[in-house]
Amino acid sequence: MSNRTIFLVDDDEAIRHSASFMLRHAGFLVKTFPDGMTFLEQVSADNEGCILLDVRMPGMDGLAVQNALNQRGVKMPVIVLTGHGDVPVAVEAMKRGAIEFLEKPYEKQTLVSAIENAFEQLETQSADDRRSKDAQAKLTALTPREKEVLECLVDGLTNKGIAQALSISPRTVEIHRAHMMEKLDADSLSSALRLAFVAGLGSE
Length: 204
What we know:
The chain is of the alpha/beta class.
């Protein structure tokens, strides 16, 4: 991934200094913030990277920062940094979307590995988002009736079952199905279904 920016939010100046030094040497671009409010003033949903977030900070703790990020639609992966005995807080942070927590003091390799995992997840998520958008775009080419046929296939109906459900003849189902397969560039039922699932059909 081209953008390997780390947003480090920690009120401990020594930790900010040592962690940023270590991460820069590991090839990351690091931006540090002394508290949650300062960070939130400068971050937006357009930012890309990974957030290292201390949970115990004066004024605004890590969970409050996380809530604010969620409300603003900031999708960057969050790794929570906790002191000894803060495991219940870390578990709560993970419930709210943090991907991992690390107890201080952490080893350099543990921290770097956690960040690498975060960026890998980000890349996978971006690829999934692209696939979903591509699939949804293909579905827009279908007529309402062709989409109904596809939805019936997603529900596991046979051509005969689709004919009954839509009150049309099995022959008409076959015609709509053939047009639908052609528009989706699907060479088999399984590939048409895969596309439908990626586009979000059948997920309700």
